[in-house]
Amino acid sequence: MRLIKTKKIVDENVKIDFFTEFLATGAYTGFVPKASGTVGSAFAMIFLLVSGFYSPVVLFTLIFIFFFAGIIVSGRMMQRYGDDPSVVVIDEVTGQWFSLAVLSIFYPELKIETAVISFLSFRFFDILKVYPAGYFDRLKNGFGIMMDDVIAGLYSGIAAVILIKFIGYLW
User: Fold this and answer.
1) % of the chain residues with pLDDT over 70
2) Among residues 18, 40, 92, 107, which one has the fewest Cβ atoms lying within 10 Å of its Cβ?
3) Which pLDDT value is given to residue 29?
4) Is the dihedral of CA 131, 150, 48, 18 positive or negative?
């Protein structure tokens, strides 16, 4: 479990095209010097400002598209930056959206508290790497990079639903 991954270039001869870099780094948020995964997750949350984004149909469609695109661009970025490069945050974006998608099924009306709980629980599970997320994290390929965050998003969404139910019960 690594809280802060170091940014390094392992092969300067590998050239990355604009589209691959832009997508893989979450519009360059992956180049933030510290906690790029957290910044990538926060970047994913910005899309909640778009009307209609917090819909299971929209979210699951985007997750599907970004998951497969993420496998491709992550694999390419690994050639330049090594295994599980910290600059790649498309996995955090997709995982955070998965957490929101699970929540949107149970809580179709978005509230700021719901979004905050989703964000915090996703960061918790993304860092913790609860099985099988840790297994996928060790695969060292584009599929593994993406899948460990999708698993974290699933756990996060379920935990957030339970937490919100519990908090609602207390209030």
Assistant:
1) 94
2) 18
3) 93
4) positive
Q: Helices in the chain by DSSP H: which ranges?
A: 18-24, 36-46, 56-81, 90-106, 112-128, 133-137, 142-170
Q: Is residue 137 part of a domain?
A: yes
- The widest CA-to-CA distance across the chain, in whole angstroms, is 58
DSSP strands (E only) in the chain: none
- Report if residue 126 sits inside a domain: yes
Specify the number of domains making up the chain: 1
Does residue 89 belong to any structural domain of this protein?
yes
How far is Cα 62 from Cα 130, in angstroms, rounded to an integer?
A: 24
Burial of 57 (0-12, 13-18, 19+ CB in 10 A): exposed
- Which sign, positive or negative, has the C-alpha torsion 116, 120, 126, 131? negative
**The pLDDT of residue 163:** 92
Residue 159, domain extent:
18-170
Residue 18 exposure: Cα atoms within 13 Å on the Cβ side = 0
**Its pTM surpasses 0.70:** yes
pLDDT under 50: residue ranges of the chain: 1
Spatial distance between the Cα atoms of 62 and 55, rounded to a whole number of angstroms: 11
pLDDT value at residue 85: 85
Structure token digits, residue 15: 């050239």
Report if residue 97 sits inside a domain.
Answer: yes
